[in-house]
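User: Some background: our group keeps a shared notebook of sequences we're curious about, and every so often someone picks one and asks for a predicted structure to add to the entry. Today it's my turn. The entry only has the sequence so far, pasted here. Could you supply the structure so I can complete it?
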Amino acid sequence: MIYAFGSMELDLAKVELRDNGEPRAIEPQVFALIAYLVEHRDRMVSRDELFEKLWEGRVVSDSALASRIKSARQALGDDGRTQAIIKTVHGQGLRFMADVRVRHDSAIEAQPAVVEEPEKMTPALSPEAATRPSIAVLPFRSIGASEGWSAIADGLPHELITELARLRWLFVVARGSSFRLRADDPDPREIGRLLGVRYCLSGTVELSGHQLAVTTELVDTWGGDVVWGERYTGNVDDVHAMREEIRMSILASLEIQIPLHEASRARLTVTDDLDAWSAYHLGLQHIYRFNRRDNALAAELFSRAVDQDATFARAHAGLSFVHFQTAFLRQANDIAEAIRCARDCAQRGVDLDPLDPFVNFTMGRTYWLEGDLDRSLSWLERATSLSPNYAQGIYARAWTEIMAGNSDSGRQHVDLAMQLSPLDPLYYAMLASRGLTHIAAEDDQTGAEWAERGARAPGAHVLIAMIAAAAQALAGNDERARYWATDVRSRNPTLTRD
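Assistant: Of course. Here's the predicted structure to add to the notebook entry:
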């Protein structure tokens, strides 16, 4: 991915900042800071979140962050007085203010020196290559809605993604990728090119008094033509009936407009309590940021959802996700207790809705934590059987297969996960897992190249850098191995060779 703003280009693949095409000298941590702000330009990034991402939660002084911010501004031609690109929100955090254009650098694919199979380095599907219809559902744009109703603009399209993913004839891009393409006026052709989809569904949510209006639009990304559009209005007290109307209308329209297969519809089990529903979807916005602060906020929101509706299966699964992350990233002193909580919450979700893919996914991952790969795989296979387009479920299944010694199947599934969600918040882990499949096949050089690509991706945590260090050592690249080993020790001194 390349992010362009003004005369600047931020090239994530090459880890390079360019001004009018010319590379600018920049420290890796300063580059990481700019990349993180650009990728989260739709919101303010808190100081705590930056400490978590840039220093892995280690205790450092405020002056260290201030120094990186100053260097970032200098690299971008900005300064603390003007703040035209990086704006300080006093006492809270930073916002990236420049208008950003996103594009994919196809030249990367044409460099045969990268790996032996260069065509697989960019696994996103093109519309021409897709064997079935494909669609991306974007977050809806909120117009005039008060803060208390803002979850609807994200919640409605997320539920549509989940519902559409159950249709086996339709290729659906995961939420983790499509939700990163927020824009007031999205360009469907650019979205189609970036995500490799033929159709794009977008919409708006408008609240005026007690009147709620939802407008949806299905666009052909090849020509930019509007295929179908509809406007739904009603009283906010009838919001759940409106959700059902929207779901049925869109599914029926897709069956008419994309008549390649006859698809059956599956009912999405959700709560009828709007407060619980809103808290759950707000919690989803935090769990995919993978840091302590947001993990704690997600736990609070999922707990609120459970308090409002104890039968809401996905809210229990969300709590399981939170406890899994706490245990996996060692963010608690009592890891055994975190594992127990993750299992208990997942089990409660299974008891309430055994056919929900997310619930089965969270249950499967709890067995990772204990090294029980066989039981983990059985749950993850069940999750992906229920929802064949569930990208993170497919990635979790791939990781489990790789660890169990089935690298061929693991490679197929990790490639599919990257195709389904090329902008996924866990994409760096998918890249590193792809590297592990090559190491298992004794192709250490290719494995090292994939692992390093994962370690260099924005947001990659320190364990990915450890994989890169080991992979480069296996490939005989001692200098690169020492580089990543030094990077690991600087980020977390407790991680050793042993």
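Suggested note for the entry: The first strand starts at residue 2 and ends at 5. The radius of gyration is 22 Å.
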